[in-house]
Protein 1
Amino acid sequence: MGKDGKSKHVAIIERCAISETGLSQLFPAATHFHFHFFKDYATFLSAMVWTPCISLIYSLSGIRTERLTCLRALNHMEKNYPDRQRIVLAGNQMEERLISDFSPTSLHGILSKTMPLELVRQQLWTWLNENQQQDDNVLNLWYYSYDQMLSQTERDIVFCTTQGYSIVDIARYFRRNIKTIRAYKLSLMAKLGVRNDAELLYAADILIHMRKTLNEPDAPQRRITA
């Protein structure tokens, strides 16, 4: 990459101005890359019409609504721009692990922003310069079919988790004993390899909102009403 002397455009989606300032300092000497910062995916798509980017670096936010927007954006990017590089900067190592474990969207790289900045810079630089070989470098992250792994009750719990329902709510709706539902939840968490409710919610968001697993369950077998 860069051997043809042409400039390469790289898009970075980062909502936080402070983080944007930090990221802008990662490649101060890059001569064959032009970095463009965007606050959201829609603005990036509009700019793509005039300035096609060879790579999208999405800085993941810890806010849930923005996280879901990021997941949908990555899914859209894979479907509509499969030849463009997709890199995610996760907020921490937990996010990095969960995305690596559960995201069915192919990524060319994922890093935790808690890594030392020099290591982040070196790895991003390596990925950007390998962009021409991206077909060989895509991370095939989807190793298991969770549709096969999870029972219907466990899938219902996954869906209900994303809707904010508690164990008591789920047990009451499905007319099951709370201890039974709790046992299913523990089994679900063990299968997914998550350790607490925060990680379960994160994993459930990915499984539901990426729309590529669990047979696209729009609702449990019976809809829960508020």
Note: The radius of gyration is 19 Å.
Protein 2
Amino acid sequence: MEKAIKKSDVLIEALPFIKRFYGKAVIIKHGGSTIGDRKLTRGILEDIVFMSYAGMKPVLVHGGGPAINAAMKKLGKAPHFVNGQRVTDRDTMHVVDRALSEVNRWLVAEIKKLGGKSYGLSGRDSGLITAKKIKSSIDLGFVGEASKIGTTLLDRLLDANIIPVVSPVGRGTDGEIYNINADSSAAKIAGALKAEKFFVLTNVRGVLKNPKDPDSLFNTLKSGDVRRLIRKGIVASGMIPKVSACLLALKGGVKKSHIVSAALPHALLLEIFTKEGIGTEIIR
């Protein structure tokens, strides 16, 4: 009986949040090492399907580093990175595109198994992501950034209560396809859709005051706080692109950005539908 009461308390706490976010777009970026864990990813997809049934409009933007590395290994190609960017020659670009397409198909199939409606998209199709080649002192090859997001197809899918699953590959005005960072692609899509929330799933609880202490979590940060933490070196290494994507989404008009751990069961639902949350929210 006591257990049932506690469950009802959870539902009652969630009710005002369900009302508030009904009909609102929410963009989730999932990638990195955690996307290679299929059991963990299925749990994340359960949350996304729940959000859809609760009347929200989720969009999943995914990476696929482990799948890309595995595909390259089969071909005898060693991955090469410069400042965190994968050097991508033409052959590697084809490997990246194929590997991301396979991840995309699997994610769509899993969402359908869970009872959700879903449709897979590559950013290079239907004018979804227009890419611009990244210029640097070392030529990275076919590595780009999103210069423009076309939302026509996304809007149609969301209006039909279908969950779009987006692979972060873009097409340049030169007709070439480019490998684009999934964090920044997701942030750009969130801004273009004027999403209510933008989520980056990662392998830590959120932004930490002390990276060695998982309990030193910042629950809420303002954009200025984030920039200050970067200058001080408290936010460093792999967390910089995550928080940078959050700031980019806010700049694009998103209400709130969130960084949460992909490893915590139902982290998305706990961050959205509870007062305390479970990760770090970043606001303007």
Note: The domain at 2-283 is CATH 3.40.1160.10 (Carbamate kinase).
Protein 3
Amino acid sequence: MFSVRPLYMIGEGRKFGLQHGWPTVARYAVSGERVPPLTSALPLAEKVHDALVSLSDGAGVFTGCDELKRPLLGHRHAHILCESDDRRGAITAVTVYARRGFSALESEALEGLSRIWGPEDGPQVDLALQGLGWPEDFGESALLGKSRSWVSRTPFLAMRHGKRTRAGVAKLDWRGLQIGGAEHDLLRLLDDAGLPEPVQVEPVAGTILGGEMVGWERFVTRRCAGRRPAGGGPCGFRVRFTEAVQGPVAVGYASHFGLGGFEKGLSL
């Protein structure tokens, strides 16, 4: 478990938020008799999403849509990211992050979130709000720190299909990457997120959970609504930038629901 000082809480914190802008991060400690593993980050994040939509009476920062049900642009609505520092690989923390910030009413919904039920209506999962603030306030988090090197913690799924000629030959860009392929799409999405182009990218086969290497294929990668990712299968990368970038870094299919998340990594 972890602990941080409360930030932007009810009462005194409301004034702090008005003075310094809306908080962009809500961070929760996770507990329960049977907490899902990180491989179930997607279905657990969907449960958190549903709870916040209900608690906020459908606030756009949680639904991802405006009053006319049109998708919000720019990925400024909430990302729900799961972490694990458990010996068994169970989820130990959930972070809700929105680049545009959370208003006072939206913060009340975040403060009201205290429990959900696990994937497929599994056992109750308890969520204890540790604080609301900004990424730099949670530097102990591997997802919210600042680093030049980042490595996939949950699988990345491309949003586009790799392009090929009629003869079946991969179409390449000037870097030699298949257009629409996983690495090509990763670079596109990082750029869309306002991040600099990495100076080095290398694939990684999985992530360490419970003391063992867990391949990306062991993660749940299909949303309950049944929508499939456009690109190929799950994969992961280690990327290095020329300068330190502030987390969180989450891109690709279902990046608002726990997938495509990166954590601070060792320098390449």
Note: Residues 41-55 form the longest helix (15 residues).
